[in-house]
Design brief:
This protein has five helices and no strands. By secondary structure, it is mostly helical. The longest helix has 14 residues.
C-alpha cells in the first residue's frame, strides 16, 4: 500500500472517530429489535434508497445488546456461520 493511500485511509478513520450517536433512552431498542433489524438489513438497505424514513440501523438503541442482536441477525443471510464450516465435495 502506498503512503498516499495509507494517509487517506488514516485521515478518514480519524474523521469517523469524531461521529457521535444519541444517548440510549428508556425503552430504546434492545437485543431482539437488533436481531430483527439485522435480519431485514439487506431489504431495508435497498428500501432506504427510495425512502428517507427507512434505515438499516435503529438509533437510539440500548448499545451493546442491540449491536450483538444486529450482528447475529445479519449472519442469518450468510447461513449463520455453518455455511463456512461445510465441507466442499
Amino acid at each position: 500500500m502506498t503512503f498516499r493511500v495509507f494517509a487517506t485511509l488514516l485521515s478518514l478513520l480519524f474523521l469517523a472517530s469524531c461521529a457521535t450517536a444519541p444517548l440510549a433512552i428508556e425503552g430504546a431498542r434492545g437485543f431482539f429489535w437488533g436481531l430483527f433489524d439485522g435480519a431485514v438489513a439487506p431489504i431495508a438497505f435497498i428500501l432506504s434508497w427510495f425512502s428517507d424514513s427507512i434505515a438499516i440501523y435503529g438509533v437510539p438503541n440500548s448499545g451493546g445488546w442491540y449491536d450483538f442482536g444486529f450482528l447475529i441477525g445479519v449472519t442469518f443471510w450468510a447461513g449463520g456461520g455453518g455455511a463456512a464450516a461445510r465441507k466442499r465435495r
